[in-house]
Amino acid sequence: MSAKDTDWDGVRLHVVTGKGGTGKTTVAAALALALAAGGRRVLLVEVEGRQGIAQLFDVPPLPYEERRVAVAPDGGEVYALAIDTEEALIEYLEMFYNLKRAGKAMTKLGVVDFVTTIAPGLRDVILTGKTSEAVRRKEKNGAFVYDAVVMDAPPTGRITKFLNVNDEVSGLAKVGPVRNHADTVMRVVRSPETAVHFVTLLEEMPVQETMDGITELREVGLPVGGVFVNMEHPPLLAEDELAAAAGERLDLDEIVRGVKSAGLEDDAERVAAVLAAEAVAHARRTALQRREKERLERIEQPRYTLPLLSDGVDLAGLYDLARALREQGAA
Q1: In the prediction, which pLDDT does 90 show?
Q2: ArsA/GET3 Anion-transporting ATPase-like domain location, by residue (predicted)?
């Protein structure tokens, strides 16, 4: 699938959010790899200071600079940036107020923490501003430095406030550099070049937060992207077996006979009971997934499904997820 056959033609800033525990950082990393395939250059930005990107790509903790962390299929490159709020604030002071020395002195006095605590909107402007600058940055020949930027953003419950920086700074500044900077950020965030994607599991709470988050974004005019259903458990039983397990109507004697035929004669009854309990739990989880999938079908956004990786998410698994996203048209 070529880059022009995707669901997100023209989008250059992909913001990835999701309820905690849904695999948001993993999906952001896989999306960056998918977008970079075919010789493109993509920047993956982390704003929460957890060094999750470094762990996924099995590299040392990232400094406050853009570094290549992976080569995508067909020669593309993924760069990563872990934004340090303190360093970014110093950079911001130098850029707009020529206060680099003062900024470094401020860190020693703890003023940076003070500023970002009493004016959290300023912190969000700094984080989103650094990302939007990377989206706009160009080479001397006029080409963009990065073909796309992927932001591993804060969780769903905070994403609207985080991105809607104009409202956040309205009480801080009506004019001047802070206001101008926020306006510049919002021009990027509200443009057709931005999409805010949601990561969810097929569970009640993540799905509800996804639906609520999409509604909140639309209410403030921010661009909604796709829904990434992560870690879907494929059904391991046939439909009639699922129905029997869900109704706890499994033939325990038959399971015992199967266990004995596998050579576990001595403890066959106990093993069979454990297997039956596992089958019941699996049937109920499958029914829950199907119910939540039906709820997600009410959302008119593109949906992508990523499988549960039985061996966990290592670098090879990340490439598998990226391939799945490309095959589904996400990149």
Answers
A1: 75
A2: 13-180
Same-domain check for residues 269 and 190: no
- On whether both 250 and 174 belong to a single domain, the answer is no
Count of other CB atoms within 10 angstroms of residue 43: 25
Give the predicted TM-score (pTM) of the model.
0.87
Tokens 């001595």 found at: 266
Walk across the sheet containing 41-46 and list its strands. 67-71, 77-82, 41-46, 148-152, 13-18, 194-200, 224-232, 303-307
pLDDT tens digits for range 68-83: 999 998 889 999 999 9
Q: Which residue has the tokens 């599991």?
A: 201
Q: What is the pLDDT of residues 120-158, one digit of tens each?
A: 677 788 888 889 999 999 999 999 999 999 999 999 999
The whole-angstrom separation of Cα 181 and Cα 215 is 27
Question: Can you give the pLDDT at residue 238?
Answer: 87
Range of the domain at 93: 3-233+308-326
Query: Which candidate, 24, 43, 47, 25, places its Cα nearest to that of 35?
Result: 43
Structurally, the chain folds into a number of domains equal to: 2
Tell me if 289 is assigned to some domain: no
Sign of the alpha-carbon dihedral angle for 77, 82, 87, 89: positive
CA distances from 160 to 131, 214, 215, 224, 252 (A): 16, 9, 10, 11, 51
90 and 175, same domain (yes or no):
yes
Look at residue 100 in the predicted model and tell me its pLDDT: 58
Residue with tokens 């921010």: 222
- Asked whether residue 74 falls in the same domain as residue 151, the answer is yes
**Measured distance CA(249)–CA(241) in Å, rounded:** 9
